[in-house]
Fold these 3 entries.
Entry 1:
Amino acid sequence: MLEEQVRDTLNWAGNYEYRARTIEHPTTLGELQRAVASAGHVKALGSRHSFNDIADSPGTLVSLDLMDPDVVIDEAGLTVTVGAGVRYGVLAEQLQRRGFAIHNLASLPHISVGGAIATATHGSGNGNGNLSTAVVGLEIVTASGDVVTATHGSGDFDGMVVGLGALGITSRVTLRVEPTFEVRQNVFTGIPWDAVLADYDAATSSAYSVSLFTDWSGDSIGQAWLKSRTDAAPVPTDFFGGRAADRALHPVPGVAADHCTQQLGEPGPWSDRLAHFRLAFTPSNGEELQTEYLVGREHAVEAINRMRALAPRISPLLQVSEVRSMAADELWLSNNYRRDGIGLHFTWKPLQPEVEALLPELEAALAPLGARPHWGKLFAADAAGLAPLYPRFDDFRALAQRMDPEGKFRNAFLDRTVFGV
């Protein structure tokens, strides 16, 4: 097992320096169990794509990057079991080679499976749940170093999936899969806001996955990215008054599209189209901050209009915003627990003091709509503000107390946002 001292260890964006004393890199489950059992405080460190301190620890960080992903596909049961440290893009390539797919991908294929499901990270699509909704089994190393397993439909499983790292170290995950499918990606520009807001659900159901990119100013949406399955209805030739792009585009205006997945309607496997960016490249590393708020889809138009009204405050700090939809689920701390939702995502310029000063204003504007912040991004709300937004919040706290009574997996983030310390 490799152990390194933590010195100037930063997250993906470079806006957070981890305070843990050491990082351990176990190569086997046994080494992981021993590392967890011997630690005073410990947390799992994934791909470091969180923009806050959710993955930090006052003691030890454990990275699963050297553990064998050991991808096991159950073709009859339509599941795949994989090490939690594997990145989605790597898993997607292996599944595609075997003729299988998972239902969706996030914007970046670089993020780890364990970290993404623990924070309810998502892709897009009116009928698509977030990435955590594919989980049907978990293997978790608890504070004692013991291994517990949980399966869909059993006990507190729905509370364990989006676990925020508070319950233990997830070592392996079992996901639902389906037969592989092809996707074509078409981009439209200059879409009038009025046309989309007149029937938001129709706009976002125009394809398997729809993303709207905007800076919130003006009367039109900058870009709409439609990812359509080739076994479904054809792509519309015009998208709510928008024009089909005649060249590949990056979501951020003026940035070359070299790192983006294939556009212009060229069909390709889901593994090469559902993410916005290619696995072979690392986009925006150190050049951005991120925030996201999710509200019920019934509030989509009002939420969008509230952000448009704040454009003079938002746009000067912004690179681009993305609006996406996702389906409801039953996972206790999912941002879409029991409600179809939309995500209002903000990719900020690397101006953290200015962004953090604006967040309370955004949250106040969205508070009447029950906005839930993405767990892995920048937000201002604390446990007192978050608890009323999640009907099973107290149940999750009780579950964490049972599974980790001594608080080995607690950290400043959890104390601030979940346990209210």
Entry 2:
Amino acid sequence: MVLILDRNDVQKVLTMKEAITVVEEGFRELAEGRVQMPPRQLMTEPERNGWIAVMPAYIKKTKALATKVVTVFTENPKINLPTTIATILLNDPETGRPLAIMDAGYLTAIRTGAVGGVAAKHLARSEAHTAGIFGAGFQARAQLEALCEVRAIDEVYVYDVMSEASEKYAEDMSPKLGINVTSVEKPERAVKGCGIIVTASTSTKPVFHGSWLEPGTHITGIGSHMASTRELDTEAVRRSKVIVDLREAAEKEYGEILIPVSEGSLTLDHIYGELGEIITGRKQGRKDDQEITLFKSGGLAIQDTAAAHLAYSKALNAGIGTEIKLQ
């Protein structure tokens, strides 16, 4: 029998706090060499501004084996569909039989928020309590929720090119998290005075000037995921200690890195290390309160696999989902 989990089922069993824990462990296992994760396979659909990826991974410690198929079509909101649509297949690593098929739209947002939380936990100043958020969609909400799990955030400034979206974000997130969230009209206000900045937009070009960054800031960049697009300008990257989720992916897919390299402004050696290296202590994270740190992530299959395995285990224990027979 195969367990089918729809979006509501996944929402019932997957919490941000637990997702942060399993995603952090997944990165630890990756750094320790106990993960199989082939490079994700990508296709684009230029006519529809679409992006499709197939992402498999196996985490040996938890015996979590899964494959995600995810699509990102930026024009979808115009026809009342989400930008990101994803599905995960979870398999038994001992027999190969399918264990679960689950909607991964919500899961993708939570696992991406979780990695932002893990990065902030290891790289942001411990006393950072003010955050600037670029973008006001579901991912921007997940990122703030994760930040509040790892830092005592009490003041947030959100900027979106659609002011009504940032106003709705502030209206919803303030009472949900019990903190002061303010919609701002100028991007500078979401940078200056903020100890943590998150870019979670759909922009294909930089959303603020790197010269605005103040010493001690931590940045998480997760909105862009193609070699030709970026949310952060060359100056922001140049001024930062750059940590990525996976160097191999960054050197092929991340515009924040590749565009400055193509300009001749930076080299690939500007990448300091991977998040797993920071988590395991192989490399030092923040060295002092003046350093600017940047975590750039395009998303890895280990995040999906760790979150999907957690959701499946909790759903089984709670009797949630629908069982069907495939064979």
Entry 3:
Amino acid sequence: MKTNYIRRTIFLVSSSAILLLIPAIAMAERNVTVATIGNVPPSFQSENKQEMVNHVITFWEKELKQVYPDKPDLIVLPEFCDFSGEGEEYLKVRKNQVLDYLSSAAKANHCYIAFGTKREDKDGLWRNSCVIIDRNGEIAGIYNKNFPTIGEMESGIKACNDAPVIQCDFGRVAVVICYDLNFDELRLRYAREKPDLIIFSSMYHGGIAQNMWAYTCRAHFVGSVYRQTPSQIRNPMGEVVASSTNYFDFAVARINLDCALVHLDYNWEKLTALKEKYGTSVSISDPGELASVLVTSNDSKTTVDQMLRESGIERLDDYLNRARHFRQSKDHLK
């Protein structure tokens, strides 16, 4: 009885009801419109490598036009999205042409564009990279795949140990490329860094691993995956909030980065009071079965941190750390 009463009182939002909150969320200061496109240029072979480059640019010009009307802050494209055809001859001709085109597109549409590419770095090493271009058409940051496949490394692509969290004007962004999703050491490294959003540029979907990454890192997750699997946008609970379909190869969502995960232990009454005080200015979303909820500030003047502090509500990680310390104290561990 208590559980049902509390759920009604604090208006825990199921994933099916999230759309009802969009008008309220639109007032928050940390709203970001993100778009993902899950496609790549169709195969095009030609002796004239410049024709192949032109083919790639023309393809992305058409694809990007699908999401421009939503005025995205960030557009995510798949792994190797500017690599049409095989061989060094194409890469020698391509050089920075696709990068330059996407830079001009980002500047013209005042958005960030993240895209996967095979590139030669300043040391002459070949990398599988994700390049993030900012609203001015400049490079905001580059992530080099930490865990290329064995086949990639055999073909000359080098692995990297750097995993920068890239500062964008809407928040801090981490990047994962395809096979990286399998490696816990990278996931846990990002979990310690606490990015606001994770970009996943890939050839494969990863299934439940996407949920795990979003939840572990307490971050929104934007996946761009080509082939026949969906490109999806997830919240920090791992719930899908937007997805491409068999009809449309893109998805767009307006997400609110001013949010926090909170365990229900010791917080039932505090969450009730929080909802009673802020009403539609706070959303408390319950995925069920997890015993944690996602608290989101829809108030342009009060951040979620301020809401939690004034209500005495612990974040999920703080609560789990408190449990760890308590376990080690006194005679609780034998």
